[in-house]
């Protein structure tokens, strides 16, 4: 790749990439790359002219930032007038090509790139409403669109739920080798990974004796110590089996739906025809994942990974002996790939391979379009042992022979890949626990001078807290690659990685489906609880907000309380005075109703009673029964005034007898001057009937 030209304040990278058509090199086009919403976006300009490419790519960048979904039109300049599959793009690491196959492209003509698949919310946002759809509700096309719409919603919802479940899982990685035990736990903060916990335990070579499975008790005790030393609290762990214990193949199958594929697997017919294992299939723990489907060729690519059940159960039992719960069993080569994916920058991944060099395993990993290409490097047992003795300052014929055989196999694997996919591997990242790996790298460079060799650092992009820096402060950090790759792993109970990449989802645990169901129920229960808690919290927030609003509203209303209260007291006093006058008037009216002006006796008796009232006595009521009895109530300043009133009544001609019925001290003083001198009275006055 040529030098990168930066545009848009360094946010858009422009560089040359070779485009091919049917495996043959046809053009070298300028390509633009940027990051948008946390994901890499790559698009080809379709032209070798830098100035034209800048205009096209900068327009594409602006459209991307403005939320435009459709890529810009791409101008093609091809002097040969051939039919290249140019203007290909990689969006979110998925390659797509505009539909121009079989069409003659003339120089200076334009084509429009295929629109990337839209999200469900973009579809809703861009939907144009046409009332004529009412006539087409029952049509077949409408049903197909509705079905696809529902599928998109289901897939989007499943992806989001899966992503949420993956982000909440806590899993520690455990890497078991013949010479050490390594444990690690990582957490993710935004787009960055943090190495929370890590520990290494060196093993006694004599107790292991190059056979881990025969030293289960010793290994399990060392795992306990490593877990305790790292202060890891979760019991869920991910571990790996060696590549030599696994069968890894990418097989081509006739195109099938997921249900058809599952039916074929359940009848044991699929793997027998595609893989053709020498042993009984029931003796293996099998994992599979559809990598790609090609409807044009009616085929699909399936990743097949299998390991002997005896080996899987043996490694699982070691973990259980340590008091831990194995939830993931991966293959070591894929743990290296997992660490590689989270470390190497995107532009270098397509030109970089991983090589493990060691006493046990030696293999090369190339990942092309999510398909792992694994090439085993064959060395005899004595040659593997001889690797330990290779020194750059002391070369011998045997060492050079071993390195030459190793390099020849590497060169052949790289050449086959480059020929098949027309993509050159420029760099090889080496993972090894050998102490003389630097000397071995020097020997590799002499045999493969055009290929870059470098020890892989899995912690390059990982944040390391100060308390863990001493534990990883060594020159060869590649020994942590496998455990770091395992630390990235998640159980993925909802199949999140099915939407991302197959090689991040491998799990050879025999009871993985039951484990997934158990964790799925656990997550959904917790999800429902969180939803309920969130609902209650939202209700409380609503009530608090409502109370705050009411408080402010009432506070504003009470600002004039003192003034309003003063006005109220004034009006209330006036009301009391008017109410007293009203009561006096009603009493007078009632008294007048009792008097019959047509009866001479009543008039004369009333007149005599009125003349009998002393000056210091006041009437309140006068009740006449219409015959011979009048009850008089009122107020007097003293007892003597009451006695004088009774005496005056008894002196009248029409009064037969006046007597005191009751006396009291009234509560309402009225207009009397002294509260201590007020007396209330009730007098019964019996009239003489002639």
Strand order of the largest sheet: 1-2-3-4-6-7
Low-confidence stretches: 20-25, 69-138, 163-167
Q: Whole-number average pLDDT?
A: 77
Multimerization status: single chain
- Biggest sheet overview: 6 strands, antiparallel
Number of helices: 19
Structural class: alpha+beta
How many beta-strand elements? 26
> Approximately how much helix is present in the residues?
25-40%
* Overall outline: elongated
Measured between the Cα atoms of the first and last residue, the distance is: 142 Å
β-sheet strand percentage: 25-35%
Radius of gyration: 49 Å
Describe the structure.
This protein has 690 residues and is of the alpha+beta class. Among the domains are: 5-117, no CATH class; 344-456, 2-Layer Sandwich (Nucleotidyltransferase, domain 5); 595-687, Gyrase A, domain 2. The protein contains 19 helices and 26 strands. The strands form six sheets. A six-stranded antiparallel sheet has the order 1-2-3-4-6-7, covered by helices on one side. A hairpin with a 2-residue loop joins strand 3 (24-36) and strand 4 (39-44). Mean pLDDT is 77; it is low at 20-25, 69-138 and 163-167.
List the helices and strands and how they pair.
Layout: E1 5-7, E2 12-21, E3 24-36, E4 39-44, H1 50-65, E5 73-75, E6 89-91, E7 94-96, E8 110-112, H2 120-126, H3 140-167, E9 172-176, E10 180-189, E11 192-202, H4 205-208, H5 216-230, E12 236-241, E13 246-254, H6 258-266, H7 269-274, E14 284-294, E15 299-308, H8 309-321, E16 325-331, H9 332-341, H10 346-349, E17 352-356, E18 363-368, E19 371-376, H11 381-386, H12 397-421, E20 427-431, H13 437-447, E21 452-455, E22 462-463, H14 466-469, H15 481-487, H16 512-557, H17 561-594, H18 600-611, E23 617-624, E24 629-636, H19 639-650, E25 655-664, E26 679-687
Parallel strand pairs: 9-12, 11-22, 12-16, 17-20, 20-21
Antiparallel strand pairs: 1-2, 2-3, 3-4, 4-6, 5-8, 6-7, 9-10, 10-11, 13-15, 14-15, 17-18, 18-19, 23-24, 24-26, 25-26
